[in-house]
Amino acid sequence: MGVRVFRLNPAREKEGKFRTYHVEVQEGARVLHVLHAIHAEDPTLSYRYCCGTGQCGSCAVRVDGEPKLACMTEARDGMTVEPLNLPVRKDLVVEMEPALAQIAPLLPKGQAECPAQEQIAAIKPLRDCIECLACVSVCPAMEVAEFAGPTAMRQGMRLALDPRDSGGRIPEAIRAGLFTCTTCQACWKVCPKDIQIPGKAIEKLRALANREGLTLPRHLEIVQLVKETGRTVPRTETSFLEQVDEVIEPAGPVKATVGFFVGCMYNLRLPKTALDAIEVLKRNGVRVIIPHEQVCCGSPLIRTGQLEYLPTLQGKNIECFTSRGIDTVMTMCAGCGSTLKNDYRTPFTVKDVNEILTEIGIEPPARLPLTVTYHDPCHLLRGQGIRDQPRALIRRVADLKEMAVVKCCGAGGGTRSGAPDVSRALALKRDEEIEKTGADCVISSCPFCEFHIGTFSETPVKNVTTLLLEGYRKKDEGKA
Predict the structure, then answer these.
(1) CA distance 201 to 127
(2) How far apart are CA 168 and CA 378, in angstroms?
(3) Are 131 and 155 contacting, i.e. CB atoms less than 8 angstroms apart?
(4) Most buried pick, 42, 179, 196, 278, via CB within 10 A?
């Protein structure tokens, strides 16, 4: 088996390098077994391990770019093994002490109080952390801000739920950067114990902060706007809903019928993009039903911990689609789609527009002389597991050049409004990756990403459906 392994001794060199090793291991061997075999030939290789059973977290490394436990990950020929994205002490050994020091201990109360059964059930999803720091190594906010990180926030919520703890966990979490988290979910997706840190810890801490009157003023303004208008952004131009009928028939035979959940941004900030999507859907045989009484999905309220008004929004949105007998609701906004799929209990199926277009099979558009790159919206990639569909659609129209890393642009989790400096710093880092591709255009599938990246990048930003529409218009010009 051939393996590329990162080597660096900071005492002797500034730059690390990869060295290829060839070792023999049994079929089904784990990465840790491969490292043991390499070490037998080259004792200078440094790496951590202890239990070998996925319980201690000490052997966390990156395997082909993804944080993994070496003892639990099956080895494969040609794989690359490198340290977590943390300061390197030597080879695969990283500096863990600063991050571990952020994990707060339990501060016992004078009189012991046993947790109730419901408290134990709430704590259980948070207590399995093995402190491997995989989550810390992928957190975008920690790269640009003084943020204690996801595992510290997880511990803060675990202690906040424990009646035996006497610490003031909410003010402590705010000082540690609670509102700088973009809720991108990268931490959850790399956690070997599948701890849902954004939803089970950070958003819950923000909800506790809201109960204590510690919600950020800008976030309070947003919930007030929702109560007054049903939307999280103010009206600045003619809305999408004012420009369309409730039922839009396709140009040809009906292949599918969907209800369209528009979302605040496409309704009030980027209505032209939503209109482009309608043209693409019409051309491909999709009847679109658009209830005009729909309101905000509530995602910004959930992400910022303001849950009191959420049931009202959920009730209105579910009613407006069920009353029309709609069994499939389509979203264009990644945040709306993730919220409807994960935070609602709907009697209908929710699908993203990229899923709809892929499933029905689209008319081939003309190819455009463009090289584009694609930005994965966090709430589409991680929130809905949608990666390949938008890429397949893009490749029908243009050449796609991928960015080296998939990371948050900084628009989500209330960060753009509540921590604008953090949001801006993340957008500029994303723009650096965009420029490296040399692409003519950035394609995405989320209004927040499109709007935010467009604010800080000189490279044009377009939605997947807008790119498809441009391909169709070129095709029509050729026929004419």
Answers:
(1) 11
(2) 31
(3) no
(4) 179
Q: What pLDDT shows up at residue 51?
A: 95
Instruction: Tell me if 381 sits within 8 A of 360, measured CB to CB.
Output: no
User: What is the full DSSP assignment across 245-269?
Assistant: -SEE--SSS--EEEEEE--HHHHHT
Distance CA 185, CA 198 (A): 6
Query: What's the rounded Cα separation, in Å, for the pair 57 and 130?
Result: 5
Q: Which domain holds residue 36?
A: 2-94
Q: Which amino acid is at 34?
A: V
**Whether this model's pTM surpasses 0.85:** yes
Q: Which of 389, 424, 229, 427 is nearest to 309 (CA)?
A: 229
* Helix, coil or strand: residue 85: coil
Question: CA–CA separation, 462 vs 440, rounded Å?
Answer: 11
The mean pLDDT value of the chain amounts to 96
In this model, does residue 475 exceed pLDDT 80? yes
Average pLDDT, stretch 353-361?
97
One domain for residues 325 and 408: no
Average pLDDT, integer, range 445-473: 98
DSSP 329-382: EEE-SHHHHHHHHHT---SSEEEEHHHHHHHH-PPPPPP-S-EEEE---HHHHH
Residue 479 pLDDT greater than 90, yes or no: no
Residue 252 domain flag: yes
Residues 435, 432: Cα–Cα separation, whole Å: 5
Q: Minimal CA–CA distance to 3: which of 82, 61, 83?
A: 82
Count the domains in the chain: 4
**Each residue of 294-312: pLDDT tens digit?**
999 999 999 999 999 999 9
Closest C-alpha to 231, from 277, 181, 269: 269
For residue 311, the surrounding DSSP H or E stretch is helix 310-322
Residue 154 has pLDDT above 90, yes or no: yes
- Report how far residue 165's alpha carbon sits from residue 119's, in angstroms, rounded to the nearest whole number: 13
Question: Tokens 């947003």 correspond to what residue?
Answer: 222
Q: 108-117, 157-166, 377-386, 395-404: lowest mean pLDDT where?
A: 108-117
d(CA 471, CA 274): 17
What CATH number did the domain enclosing 351 receive?
3.40.50.1860
Estimate the crossing angle of helix 271-283 against helix 464-479, to 10 degrees: 50
Residue 123 · residue 162 · CB < 8 Å: yes
Burial class (CB in 10 A: 0-12, 13-18, 19+), 303: buried
The Cβ of residue 345 has, within 10 Å, a number of other Cβ atoms equal to: 6
Q: What stretches of 161-216 show up as alpha helix (H) in DSSP?
A: 169-175, 186-190, 197, 203-211
pLDDT confidence of 4, banded at 50, 70, 90? very high
Domain CATH number, residue 29? 3.10.20.30
Distance CA 244, CA 411 (A): 28
